[in-house]
């Protein structure tokens, strides 16, 4: 049986201001006194230097701008979710990667 995916199902809304927590989930993660948010992690992952063509770097920059300017809600496509998982998985600790993956997978 073929499953049809609507345009709506291809998109996801994220809250960049969502704070990540310690492993116990009892305290907000902090780095240099500042709360670590989903948006900060995604933006840092996107802006991490990688060996790739300029066009790809520009696309990542534009997505980082959308996340930064999106306020409490940013809509991302399924393709962008794949990219976000890739860049976060590359540059962060398991505690951060695990939380971000859960959010991006809707868990």
Secondary-structure element sequence?
EEEHHEHH
Whole-number mean pLDDT: 89
Question: What overall geometry do the principal axes of the alpha carbons give?
Answer: globular
Poorly predicted runs:
1-6
Helix/sheet category: mainly alpha
Q: Can you count the beta strands? A: 4
Helix proportion: 40-55%
Sheet bearing the most strands, described? 2 strands, antiparallel
Cα-atom Rg, whole angstroms?
14 Å
In percent, how much strand structure appears in the residues?
5-15%
**Total helical elements:** 4
Strand order in space, largest sheet: 1-4
Q: First CA to last CA: what distance? A: 26 Å
How would you summarize this macromolecular structure in one to three sentences?
Helices cover 48% and strands 11% of the residues.
